[in-house]
Design a protein that fits this description.
The chain contains four helices and ten strands; from the N terminus they run ββββαβαβαβββαβ. It is globular, with a radius of gyration of 15 Å. The chain is of the alpha+beta class. It has a single domain, classed as Glutaredoxin (3-Layer(aba) Sandwich), CATH 3.40.30. The longest helix has 17 residues. About 25% of the residues lie in helices and about 25% in strands. The strands form three sheets. The chain has a five-stranded mixed beta sheet. Strands 1-10-7 form a three-stranded antiparallel beta sheet, covered by helices on one side. A two-stranded antiparallel ribbon has the order 2-3.
Length: about 180
């Protein structure tokens, strides 16, 4: 595991388009989230300890904000050849065991991760209703211990976005395992 920080996409950037297969058996495109007042795109995986530590918090946030037109989507771009725990079948099993309330998508070509300049898992991108980037941020300030969190970055960013307000603070980069790039790519 190589600790890596988000590359911090520029605020105002339009969400790069995608169409990816989901573990639910359907293909998902950016247009499927056009009804979202806020869209959270999380580059994720099955095995990274940072992701594992944050998964329950992401699930809780999606449930908390669901009725406020906030949509989450997780995308796994890790090379499944070198990291079979992040392959599509393993993703299906993992999403089912965790009860993901959001789509979990497979980026086999890694083109989507490259378009977003994603660097780590989790790498969090928050877009407004026009699908323009509001923040590339972390989930909160304590990945190891949810009970010790003092700043809820993603929650506060979503609340501000829904209220049409600027970010309540300067976003901190997410950190986690590096995306496992394909040796061929």
């Amino acid at each position: 595991m190589a600790l890596t920080y988000s590359q911090m996409m520029a605020v105002g950037t339009e969400a790069p388009d995608f169409c990816l297969p989901g573990v639910d058996g359907r293909d998902w495109a950016l247009a499927d989230f056009a009804d979202a007042e806020a869209l959270v795109i999380v580059f994720s995986c099955n095995h990274c300890p940072y992701v594992v530590a944050y998964e329950d918090r992401l699930i809780a946030l999606q449930r908390e904000f669901k009725d406020r037109a906030v949509r989450f989507v997780a995308i796994c771009s890790n090379d499944a050849t070198t990291h079979p725990a992040d392959g599509f079948e393993a993703m299906k099993a993992h999403a089912e065991s965790k009860g993901f309330p959001f789509p979990y998508l497979r980026d086999d070509t890694q083109a989507v991760a490259r378009a977003y300049n994603a660097a780590c898992t989790p790498d969090i991108f928050v877009f407004d209703a026009q699908q323009r980037l509001v923040a590339n941020t972390r989930i909160d300030d304590n990945w190891k211990d949810a009970s010790a969190v003092t700043r809820h970055d993603l929650r506060d960013m979503l609340t501000a976005t829904l209220a049409g307000q600027q970010a309540p603070f300067e976003p901190e980069p997410s950190m986690g395992c590096n995306i496992k790039w394909s040796p061929a790519g």
